[in-house]
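FW: tagging you since you asked about this chain on Friday. Here's the raw sequence from the shared folder, copied in full. Didn't touch anything.
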Amino acid sequence: MTKTSKKKEIPSASRGQEDALTRFAGIVGTAGVESQVRALQDEGADEAALNAALTREWELAHDRWGLGLLHLRHAAQVVRDAEGTADVALLVDGTPRARVSEGARAVAGTYAAMQALGAEGLSEWGVLPDGHRAALKGGSAQLRVLIEDARDFETHWTPERGGFWTRTWRQGETLAVEVHRPASPATALADAAWDVITRVRDRNFQRELMERSNSVGMLGALLGARHSGAESALDRLPEAHFAVSSAIVRESGREGRSLERWKAMSREAAQSLDELQGAGTKRLAAVLSSGLR
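HL: got it, structure written out here
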């Protein structure tokens, strides 16, 4: 008679950490960040190494979400409750402000409360402390002086072609360019819904969705074609609360004092943002297309 083998039990604390890391990966994944923390854990990394990786990924996600909170210090770290169950705490300037177990909606709400958005959907918070911001007056002469002078500075938002906005700053030895194109999660979802509907092969069904979208919008039409709980299920996904709207390129040393390098950085950031937002639309379209007839 063959002896029945028992599946090895995973300690509850380990399961909790695994669940927390999965939720964390889902949230940063909305910024096109492929989390490596699980792989580090599997390799036996200690919590200090995990926390360092969590923070790097969380900072990169903030760069790409473009929430306008770069004047704050963002970090993430593993924490445990009295039973030893792990979670990931999200810190702002060293203070825990949210946990991934609260869900993407709650986490997004925590950071939304810190924002200060103007009429164009651009952050009114500066990256550097007050006194460093300069309004560009046209041409490149002023910017050349700022870049080559190597002192801390920050420009106000400047409109560019293609719906982009840019701002530049130097902090210490590092020059940074942020290219921003406002894209709320709702807008990103609507774009993805349009992408899905235009790819529907059944023309009668496509026409039905288009007609329905006149009253409930593209996303509403698409969700209405799925099961009754589709809208609430979507609301639980991180993609419903986070979207890419920025790309930042940084440079240090001699290259960070070159106007020509700054021009190249601006192009790189714009191209990166285009690619990130395009990839985000494809990811969302894949989620929304599930279950369509």
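FW: The beta strands are 74-80, 86-92, 95-99, 133-134, 153-155, 158-159, 165-171, 174-180, 246-252.
HL: agreed, and The first strand starts at residue 74 and ends at 80.
FW: great, closing this out.
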